[in-house]
Structure formats: C-alpha cells, structure tokens
Amino acid sequence: MKQFKPSNQKGFTLIELMIVVAIIGILAAVALPAYQTYTKKARFSEVMMATTPFKTSYEVAVQSGDITALLDADAGTNGLPAEITVANGMVASVTIADGVITATGTTDVDGATYVMTPNGVTAPVQWTVSGTCKTAGLC
Fold first, then answer.
1. What is this structure's pTM?
2. Domains of the chain by range and CATH?
3. For a tag site, which of 6, 82, 94, 132 has the least CB within 10 Å?
4. How many whole angstroms from its chain centre is CA 12?
5. 3 in helix, strand or coil?
6. Is residue 111 within 8 Å of residue 92, measured between CB atoms?
7. Measured between alpha carbons, how far is 85 from 132 in angstroms, rounded to an integer?
8. What count of Cα atoms within 13 Å lies in the side-chain half-sphere of residue 68?
9. Cα–Cα dist 86/44, whole Å
10. Distance between CA 43 and CA 131 in Å, rounded?
11. pLDDT digits 0-9 by tens, 7-40
C-alpha cells in the first residue's frame, strides 16, 4: 500500500492573514486621527501667516515712534493692510485693535482664533500668543 505524502505547499494560513489584517487595522486607527490633526495644523498656518502684515505694521510704527497714529488707525490707513486675501480661504477675518491682532479661521479649521498681544509700545516688541488655537493644539 502506498502512503500518502502531502505536497510541500507554500503560503499563509488563514489565521496568519487575519493577524496581519488586524495589525493593519490597529495601525490605521491610530494614524488617522494624528493625520487629521496635522492637516488642520497645516491649514491653520495660513491663519497665523495672515497676521504678518499687521504685525509688521505695528513693529515699524514702534520703531519709528509713530505708534499713536497706528493705534488710532483703521484698516487701509497708516500702513495697515485693508484686506487679507488667502488663496485657499482658511482665513475668515484679521483685525487689529489697540495693537492686539486677532485672526479667525473658517470652519475648515473649526473657527479657531489666533490672538497676538504686544508687550507694549517700546522696542523690541514681544508678542504673546493666545486664542482658541492654543487649546485646540493648532498653534
């Protein structure tokens, strides 16, 4: 009588494939929220950069000693930009009042705010950052 010899098969068993799929699922569950946070941070950088013209105008006014004219100015006068336009539309508004610059993002960045407060009217100007972006971890 002939004895049956199993052929030497190569491949993965079902349990091995299931373990690999489970590991990939766990890694995806961890990576996806982190990726979404990084995407929001990148989008919010547009909001932060939109404050640059206001910040520069304030610092130039401090250096030149003409800060009172700037603090009393409206947008579009005394070196303040009239309007901020951003290509991808992440910025809802940017305002300056008494030297405090406030930028608000659109719903793409959860409407988070970025507030920059100067330390005073003497050079060098140091800025303190606050706003809802701090608690959201965007800035």
1. 0.71
2. 14-136 (3.30.700)
3. 6
4. 44
5. coil
6. yes
7. 22
8. 0
9. 12
10. 16
11. 677 788 899 999 999 999 999 998 888 888 888 8
